[in-house]
Design goal:
By secondary structure, the chain is mostly helical. It has one domain. The chain is 67% helix and 0% strand. It contains nine helices and no strands. Helix 4 packs across helix 5. The longest helix is centred in the last third of the chain and has 13 residues. The chain starts with a helix and ends with a helix.
Length: 116
């Protein structure tokens, strides 16, 4: 169980989920607090206030990650675009969440449009 906790704190989240840390880094949080390796109470409180969520949600997301849809909602609510926060990982998480890889989706579209 300790290995799983260490993996999560190192940023390894379940497939289809995104780490919270990039969003925290993009928020206007006190830089001294935000640069710590752990997400301390000061960061949690500031992030919760800025995102309009509970501190419990911040704790939960720091351990389990965000779904791409929650990531989108939170980033947009903070005046950011999720692509600028998570880059291609956000797109990949959406594809994983849908159960399709982007290449498979594109191939399916191209094949179906060619057969018309």
């Amino acid at each position: 169980m300790k290995q799983q906790g260490a993996a999560r704190s190192a940023g390894f989240i379940s497939p289809g989920r995104l780490p919270l840390r990039p969003l925290l880094d993009a928020l206007p949080i006190d830089r001294q607090l935000a640069r710590q390796d752990v997400i301390g109470p000061g960061v949690v409180a500031q992030a919760a206030t800025l995102l309009g969520v509970s501190t419990r949600s911040i704790h939960r997301w720091s351990h389990s990650g965000l779904t791409p849809w929650a990531a989108d909602r939170l980033a947009i609510g903070a005046g950011l675009h999720p692509l600028t926060v998570w880059g291609d990982a956000w797109i990949h998480a959406i594809d994983t969440g849908r159960g399709l890889d982007a290449r498979e989706d594109r191939q399916h579209y191209e094949t179906s449009s060619l057969s018309r």
